[in-house]
From TrEMBL, chain A:
GO terms for molecular function: kinase activity. Belongs to the ROK (NagC/XylR) family. The keyword Disulfide bond does not apply. Pfam families: ROK. It comes from Planotetraspora silvatica. This is Sugar kinase.
TrEMBL record, chain B:
Pfam families: ABC_tran. The keyword Thylakoid does not apply. The lineage of its organism: Bacteria, Bacillati, Actinomycetota, Actinomycetes, Streptosporangiales. Keywords: ATP-binding, Nucleotide-binding. Residues 7-244 form the ABC transporter domain. InterPro entries: AAA+_ATPase, ABC_carbohydrate_import_ATPase, ABC_transporter-like_ATP-bd, P-loop_NTPase. This is ABC transporter ATP-binding protein. One of its GO terms (molecular function) is ATP hydrolysis activity. It comes from the Bacteria. Coiled coil: none annotated.
Length: 402, 258
């Protein structure tokens, strides 16, 4: 059946969401700016802000000092300390939980190191839920939790948040979101996304990639994850597994990968490859410390470490070159441990890109390290958790307060 | 950035007595970009930078700033144009705090006394604008700071004066890996904020990690100025060590730069 355009109510819902999103992403914004940003007239903006203010999502204030003549336009601020989400990040070596306020402010956080080895879901869920309870206990009574989401170092099915495979922590088919949601017992579903996908989202909305509509984010943990933003949208693929650049084969028949294949980008560039090439396989330092120790040794003239970094840098450059040819991104961001790896082998990475890509594709390419650092996946999870309230602000709020 | 260079030198010659250090050097730097200045020891990098900074008068050649021909006859002239140089020794005073260092010699006054509040606010704003989170208190003595923090303060000091060109002499030398990463990111942020940055470095990873252009000096001549997206590591090494690489570089030793 044909529909006769959106109803008044739908338009209002859409406008409320859009206004809230502007304030959420752009921080305090004056009514005058909102008027021009949204292309609505002043009385509509006033009505919308009044609704959001009444719901306790934003508040309006006089600006401190505009330095201009005339009556200043009221500034609309997100109620960051009142409206928040719970965000979780499950990495190979690290578990993190945070309470993130509207506007993307981390209000509170808890971090635990995770021992490598087999993944014990009940234990991980218990730790994260415990963190959440600790943080919730410290909140004031007038605060409100409007969502929860987790970043996970594995391939996550979009439809139900089931982690299909996490090769670096050895697990398959795990209903992580459901488990965590049950343990939290807040009556909120926990959305789950791939950590690198969410990292890309965070860098795109509040990090170094702000304003870039086309970017590739590469996240180094033990493996290599990727998130690709095309024309402002995260590339999800058919079922949500898009952007797994770590399993792009760069060296046919090369090193075995935890996924079962050989010569994947993460097999050649991941932490294990670097440590083994540097003669530190099975060593004491792992994760970021391990990578740093190799870069440090190379810097001090350790030939083995230098060779290892050169090799890894060449494969990384080759992988990025392929991505640049396919997606023509404006920016490629190196996050997680890839930050250190890129800075320590940039000469190789760039040389490979410069010889392996079309001149036109790399002309405006910018290579950057993460602007949010280790918080990128966590803040991306927060964005995912805010998704619902931004889509329909009043409905979510009324359900949570009732 | 497709506009012209913010600072451009043409045909610069400089001799110390009988020794000619710079031969007909051309050099351009652009707003919003990091230009890496590379070259072997004794290639003339420091001399070129001191000519830009007005410390050495140039013997011949033209100095253009924002398209206008200018005469720089001293460090004050360069500072007035908006050119700041951070030397390797950083020129910080250990016995002064961060704010005092940033305003050293250019203190703000209100009436007869120093305007500490305004200075502290400006210093805080500058560090904030550079997203510097490593410094906890602005009233810390510089003696108590780490190498990376000192470098950060020295760079912030250069940025404070609405400068347009900031020249950094080996900012990552003598720093550990973690601090090198922070300083490199700061260098990149300066350019992303719109400044023209010149980075002198011997470390090819640093050069390739953050630069947009590479200018290679060889025995006092500009071997080549290239975009970082157009060259490989080995080409740059050849330019540094031999002055040429394939089509790039000095042709047949007649001193003409490409």
């Amino acid at each position: 059946m044909m529909r006769a355009g959106p109803s008044q109510e739908e338009i209002r819902k859409h406008n409320l969401g859009t206004l809230l999103r502007h304030v959420h992403l752009g921080g305090p914004t004056s009514r005058a700016e909102l008027t021009s940003l949204m292309g609505l007239n002043r009385s509509t903006i006033m009505a919308l802000t009044a609704d959001l203010t009444a719901a306790g999502l934003v508040r309006e204030e006089l600006p401190k000092d505009t330095g201009k003549a005339g009556r200043p336009s009221l500034v609309v601020r997100p109620e960051s300390s009142r409206v928040y989400v719970l965000a979780f990040d499950v990495g190979v070596d690290r578990l993190a939980a945070a309470r993130v306020g509207l506007g993307g402010v981390i209000l509170d956080r808890r971090v635990a190191l995770r021992q490598r080895g087999s993944f014990d879901m009940p234990q991980v869920v218990a730790i994260l839920a415990g963190f959440a309870r600790q943080m919730l206990r410290k909140t004031r009574p007038d605060t409100i939790c409007v969502g929860a989401a987790a970043a996970f170092c594995g391939a996550v099915r979009k439809s139900d948040g089931v982690v299909r495979i996490g090769p670096n922590i050895g697990l398959e088919e795990m209903p992580f979101g459901e488990e965590l949601s049950g343990k939290l017992a807040l009556g909120l579903p926990v959305n789950v996304g791939n950590d690198a996908n969410l990292g890309a989202l965070a860098e795109h909305t509040r990090g170094i990639g702000l304003g870039c509509r086309d970017l590739v984010y590469l996240h180094g943990d033990v493996g290599i994850g990727g998130g690709i933003v095309v024309n402002g949208q995260l590339l999800g693929g058919f079922a949500g597994y898009g952007g797994e650049v770590g399993h792009m084969i760069v060296n046919p028949g090369g090193r075995p990968c935890a996924c079962g294949s050989r010569g994947c980008l993460e097999a050649e560039v991941g932490e294990r490859a670097l440590m083994e090439h540097a003669g530190r396989g099975g060593g004491e330092a792992v994760g970021r410390d391990g990578v740093r120790s190799v870069v440090d040794a190379a810097d001090r003239g350790d030939v083995v470490a230098q060779e290892a970094l050169h090799g890894v840098g060449n494969w990384l450059g080759l992988g990025v070159a392929n991505l640049v040819n396919i997606f023509n991104p404006e920016m490629v961001i190196f996050g997680g441990t890839l930050r250190e790896m890129y800075l320590g082998s940039a000469a190789q990475v760039r040389s490979q890109i410069n010889t392996g890509t079309l001149g036109a594709s790399r002309e405006h390419l910018r290579l950057r390290t993460s602007g949010l650092g280790d918080d990128a996946p966590l803040l991306g999870a927060a964005e995912l958790a805010f998704g619902k309230v931004l889509a329909d602000p009043l409905d979510v709020l009324s359900r949570q307060t009732s | 950035m497709s506009q012209g260079p913010v600072l451009e030198l043409r045909g610069i010659n400089k001799s110390f007595g009988a020794v000619q250090v710079l031969h007909d050097v051309a050099f351009s730097v652009y707003s919003g970009e990091v230009t890496a200045l590379v070259g072997d020891n004794g290639a003339g990098k420091s001399t070129l930078v001191k000519c830009i900074g007005g410390i050495h008068p140039i013997d011949a050649g033209d100095y253009f700033f924002e398209g206008e021909k200018v005469h720089v006859s001293g460090p004050r002239d360069a500072a007035d144009l908006g050119v700041e140089i951070v030397y390797q020794d950083l020129a910080l005073c250990d016995n002064l705090d961060i704010v005092q260092n940033m305003f050293l010699g250019r203190e703000r006054k209100s009436g007869l006394v120093l305007d500490e509040a305004t200075m502290e606010e400006m210093a805080a704003k500058t560090l904030d604008g550079l997203s510097v989170r490593t410094v906890t208190s602005l009233r810390q003595y510089v003696a108590s700071l780490s190498g990376g923090q000192r470098q950060t303060v020295a760079i912030a000091k250069a940025v404070l004066w609405n400068s347009k060109v900031v020249i950094l002499d080996e900012p990552t030398a003598a720093l550990g890996v973690a601090q090198t990463a922070q300083v490199l990111e700061l260098v990149r942020r300066l350019a992303d904020n719109g400044l023209a940055v010149v980075l002198i470095s011997h470390n090819m990873n640093d050069v390739f990690a953050v630069s947009d252009r590479i200018a290679a000096l060889y025995l006092g001549r500009m071997a080549a100025q290239v975009k970082t997206s157009e060259v490989t590591h080995s080409q740059v090494v050849e330019l540094i060590t031999a002055g040429r690489s394939g089509e790039l570089g000095i042709k047949n030793g007649n001193g003409a730069a490409s």
